[in-house]
Design goal:
It comes from Staurois parvus. The protein is mainly alpha-helical and about 110 residues long. The chain has two domains: about 5-40; about 60-105. About 65% of the residues lie in helices and about 0% in strands. The protein is built from six helices and no strands. The protein has helices at about 5-10, 15-25, 30-40, 60-70, 75-85, 95-105. It starts with a helix and ends with a helix. About 10% of the residues are buried.
């Protein structure tokens, strides 16, 4: 399947939505939707990010995993303090719990 920018380029070359649909072998409604979305958002073909960005970086996750493997009986609060001193990340104990569950650590 072609990208949205290809559809826009085809539209700019004075081709109809039907012709673009036949050329790219995708439904007319899809082509029309992409063109409409591009008109609304300007040159960006994607919508803005939804939701809040993650607080934990990949570095923070790997550091957390290492601290858990070294000393698995420490509390989440002490792990949060360790991450703050090691990486400079200020993360709550609830976030530590959530990240550990996503990594497969329980209990």
């Amino acid at each position: 399947m072609q990208t949205a920018s290809t559809n826009i380029c085809e539209r700019l070359c004075n081709k109809s939505i039907r012709e673009i649909s036949l050329l790219l072998n995708i439904p007319r409604s899809t082509v029309s939707g992409i063109i409409t979305k591009c008109k609304q958002l300007g040159t960006k073909a994607t919508q803005p990010q939804s939701g809040r960005p993650r607080k934990m970086t990949e570095l923070g996750q790997s550091m957390l995993k290492c601290t858990v493997r070294i000393s698995h009986q420490l509390s989440a609060e002490s792990k949060a303090k360790d991450l703050q001193t090691l990486c400079g990340l200020q993360i709550s104990k609830r976030t530590i719990h959530r990240e550990l569950h996503e990594m497969g650590f329980h209990g």
